[in-house]
Fold this sequence. Notes:
By secondary structure, this protein is an alpha/beta fold. It is 37% helix and 12% strand. The protein has one domain (2-231): Rossmann fold, CATH 3.40.50.
Amino acid sequence: MLITVIGRGHGGTRAMSHTLSASGVFMGDRLNESGDLLPPDDMYEACRVFGRYVSHRGGLDWDFSRVLEGPIDPAFIRLVESFLCSVMASDAPRRGWKLPETTLVLPWIVRLFPEAHYIYWSRDPRDSILGAHLTDNLAEFGAPAEMVEDLRLRRAISWRYQYELMRVTPRPLRCIDVRFEEFILHQESTLTRLEAFLGMPLARIPVRTDSVGRWCADPGVHDYDLFPREALFTP
């Protein structure tokens, strides 16, 4: 079984990666404290290859038709295979990986690994944009977007780009949606759903309820019209 966690940086995906590791899933030879598979460089370069096939029409409008319908660039395949070498070489019955930048290339990942189990992870974007992440600057990963000086707005645009990628990608055969907030506030029921999806028992890791709704105490701008209402979390 192959498992991957899909979600934006600062979306709380480390909680899922740590849960999988604690449950006996092999998540790669080298992981950082966030549970990311290391080294990430080949996946970063794969993102830049992917980005060449996406067109920006302006504003929040992107054309993803070439990555949804056209052939996958062979260079991308080589880079992803290199990034995942320790995972794919393992004989563990359950293996997987987590790296937030995987979301930037989701359409091709789903096409390369159609039989994998996908955990689509989401978090209220008002919390997600409070902290800095490498993907705040989409240009660094070859993703076309309007460059703005306002850092919070730049993070919000990056969030929306990744939201759109997840929205337009055909749903994988094996996929489950999990909200970070539900995992934190209702861990037992959320893990029960995940156990049924994965067909395996999962470990219970410590969680902090104060990680939910941090935006409420944030003095800066954190709410943007570009955030779809359905992406926001109401306890």
